[in-house]
Amino acid sequence: MRKQTDLDHGPGPTIRPLALNVVAGGAGFIGSHLCRALLEKGESVLCLDNLQTSRASNLRALEGHPRFRFMRHDISQPLPAELTRMAPRITRVWNLACAASPPLYQQNPEHTMMTNVVGTNHLLHLAEAAKARFLLTSTSEVYGDPEIHPQAEDYRGHVSCTGPRACYDEGKRAAEALAFDYGRAGRTQVRVARIFNTYGPNMDPNDGRVVSNLICQALRGDELTIYGDGSQTRSFCYVSDMVAGLMALMEADIDGSDPVNLGNPDEMTVNELLGHVLALTGTAARVVHRPLPVDDPRRRRPDISRANEVLGWAPKVPLAEGLEATCAWFAAELAAAKPAAAGFAG
Amino acid sequence: MRKQTDLDHGPGPTIRPLALNVVAGGAGFIGSHLCRALLEKGESVLCLDNLQTSRASNLRALEGHPRFRFMRHDISQPLPAELTRMAPRITRVWNLACAASPPLYQQNPEHTMMTNVVGTNHLLHLAEAAKARFLLTSTSEVYGDPEIHPQAEDYRGHVSCTGPRACYDEGKRAAEALAFDYGRAGRTQVRVARIFNTYGPNMDPNDGRVVSNLICQALRGDELTIYGDGSQTRSFCYVSDMVAGLMALMEADIDGSDPVNLGNPDEMTVNELLGHVLALTGTAARVVHRPLPVDDPRRRRPDISRANEVLGWAPKVPLAEGLEATCAWFAAELAAAKPAAAGFAG
């Protein structure tokens, strides 16, 4: 992946790109879509990823793009000198880095916490040095198992800070606190998106989320797993809508502002989602029920009034359409004899 | 302060102390009382402190004690090799390190967050390497501006993770999350105390807490400052009671357990406290009102049922008695021509 691109040039004949984006977590599900959208917009992208839970194969289509570069790095560790030296040219810093599914982020809770807190701080330092704008992807998990519906941004949440999900939930809350402190002190311009459930191509088939779980189980003809009785609700946003929301938020003129929920307010039960997947895949596999994980939220629906008002944003892709695209992508992934990720040398 | 004591001896004729305590924040208000109590119990104490908001003068009485040693260090930085080499002899690690009053911890919110998260992680690593038991002093601030009264440990709190107090409140919540993750993974035995308002000798006269503010203003004949209308409530625990609670919690056989509130459930308004201070000092100074700080909690009272049940602990010192001792101490402090702290070379 390390090749001569216009990102590598010092002063010289190459036209300097107007916008250089650092996208931490850019090999992840949402991150890879964001990288592509920024390139399509004509900007340059430096993708930073440790490939812990993200997939280099997500970047296959971007490899070799003249305005794209990949740097393998774990943001919980001090940033590479090569990156910090590029600060004068960096205009935007996006933090999408952190394992986001409970089974994965709970494998090493200390690392999850450090990624969110120390990693965010490293990127805030970079943004400050670069005089770049900074966007943190926070999460609906900062609301925990919410007691009000839908969740607006001023809801303070219902999070257990002692349970097995706390490394992520509290890590993100701490990352928000850090970001807003940088903003208040005028150290850098900050934007905080609270991302609700998102789905689409490039999801990790094995990360244990309900959409990918059900689709992959259906496509493989495996039993379909429902945790609890399936009456818990979720709201699913298609990834292209999410990326449009993130880009609108980064560019919006709302300094010193509050966090902004991004997600699809179309709430449904997990059983309803199951119905869609069964219809779409035509699987005859049976459904098995397993116990709800500890602190699993019972309901989750974003109030997106603020995003609507300040960004003019709302999701556009209907669930049926998004699920169909997602199913098609998973079918192609599963059909591929071997994962292609191995060929990617970051 | 660096002198030959039994803490410095390697193998040799010196009798190895049965218990070596590392007390981070040991020069602080509660920390200094804890150090003294541990020494009085016959144990050894290695006090770790950056002297950021704590006062070396708090340790004056311990200086030269053969089982006491001071090491100046900021726990947000990697621990000194000299300390980590002592791990095999360390039996208890206490984390009382962090600026705790809003004006002070808000001076450098990034450092406050890093002290709580990275600092706690450094000490957890030390405890793990030492196979020592670890105690985190968390705070009633994890409940934020609570919506239920009194606050029991299973209340998830009402904290703003975006406001100016978040660096402390969310830092402590993240520190709790880390500690319980170490505990769940069997990496070290953890204890988490949620400390409510505490007062007594060795408080910093300038740290902006209501008890020290009012007493010092009264003793100096200054105007007495009440934030808001004074109807907000607090519950004040005398420091000797708090230290007894912390020591009971550290030694209690409650592995894998939950956090434990420590504080005095005797709730009063700030105006009632003011009445006590006026009566005790006989000041004729007038009272001025100032606006309530952002996110200032309106009510705060611990439910100490769990401490009662699992530790057999309850506070014993009545407010009148505690306030009298505190006033006497502040009077002596203010009378001293110059602060004596300068003489202490940590």
What descriptors fit this protein?
two-stranded parallel sheet, alpha/beta, 13 strands, 10 helices, disordered C terminus, 346 residues, homodimer, Rossmann fold, seven-stranded parallel β-sheet, disordered N terminus
Helices and strands in order, then pairings?
The structure is a homodimer of 346-residue chains.
Chain A: E1 20-24, H1 29-40, E2 44-49, E3 68-72, H2 81-84, E4 92-95, H3 102-105, H4 109-130, E5 133-139, H5 166-184, E6 190-195, E7 198-199, H6 210-220, E8 224-227, E9 233-235, E10 237-238, H7 239-251, E11 260-262, E12 267-269, H8 270-281, E13 287-290, H9 305-311, H10 319-335
Parallel strand pairs in A: 1-2, 1-4, 2-3, 4-5, 5-6, 6-11, 7-10, 8-13
Antiparallel strand pairs in A: 9-12
Pfam families (chains A, B): Epimerase (PF01370)
Domain NAD-dependent epimerase/dehydratase (chains A, B): 22-263
GO molecular function, one term (chains A, B): UDP-glucuronate decarboxylase activity
